[in-house]
Fold this protein.
Amino acid sequence: MYTVHPIESVRTRDVTIGATELRFLALWARVLVLLRRRLRPAQLDESCEGTEHPERVGVVLKNIAIGSALIHERSVVNDYDLAQIGHIALSSGAPGCGKVLRVVLDNGGTATTPDVERLTGMSPPTAHTYMEQLHALGLAGFRKGAPATVRLSKDFKALLGAPNLKPKGVGEREAA
């Protein structure tokens, strides 16, 4: 990469990022900050404050997207670059919450405990715990019941249209 683009030879403004792509970057930054919050069991019913700021995380994610575009010899951030950003965001927080959120996104914004169990390999209590944590973080609503259901928060519904990379085995349905 540095042969093609020597250090300090490219300004970030030389790489185009469209308005839609910027919106996805901002949403993924918010998701990443939320997923990195640490919750104790007593906090499941309380809001909690994180120490990171989405703006700072957004700059890092934007630079990664720009780097991806440059590595692929492009001057425009595209869906592949954004899919990487989504993967990074979902993989950089509490691992179980990221997996459950991926299931919710892959299922059109809603997932039940059996969905989460089947698509992540989690046990019922573990799936239930992570579903409650997504609710406590503000990423999703949670409804107790048999089965329990988690629904993507309206603030993050736009991510249903975001490009994504799926880690092997996550979000894949079993053959019927």
User: Anything to note?
Assistant: Strands lie at 110-112, 140-143, 149-152. The CA atoms of residues 64 and 85 lie 8 Å apart. The chain has two domains: 1-6+16-44+52-93, 95-157.
